[in-house]
Amino acid sequence: MISSVITSGAVFLISLFQALPIAAFPAASKIDGYSIGDITWEIQTSPGGPVVNVTGTVQEVIKYAEKVNPNFRSDFTLD
Ligand SMILES: *[C@@H]1O[C@H](CO)[C@@H](O)[C@H](O)[C@H]1NC(C)=O
Asked: Where is the signal peptide (predicted)?
């Protein structure tokens, strides 16, 4: 998976662990009208726990979530 994505302002919903990408930061793109940027995901790190913004790839977001909640995968049945 690449660390950047092409965005068009659309909102993507990942139902796996209820993460909602909320922002993409503009960068140069070779496609008119589109930009390339990192995605910020608004995620809940544990059931009933705090909601935080994490910027990066989905792999980086999961890595962060596992760091703050070692039970993240089992809490959200990702395994
Ligand atoms: C995450 O960022 C968005 C956009 O800036 C903001 O509206 C939202 O309140 C933030 N969420 C948290 C948990 O900080």
From this structure: 1-24
What pLDDT digit, counting tens, does each position of 32-56 carry?
888 888 899 999 999 999 999 999 9
**What phi and psi values does residue 26 have, to the nearest 5 degrees?**
-60, 145
Domain that residue 53 falls in: 5-75
Given ligand 1 and candidates 38, 45, 53, which is best to mutate, with the most ligand atoms within 8 Å of its CB?
53
- CA 38 / ligand 1 centre spacing (Å): 15
Q: Which of 20, 71, 15, 13 is nearest to 47 (CA)?
A: 71
pTM above 0.70, yes or no: no
51 Cα to the center of ligand 1, angstroms: 9
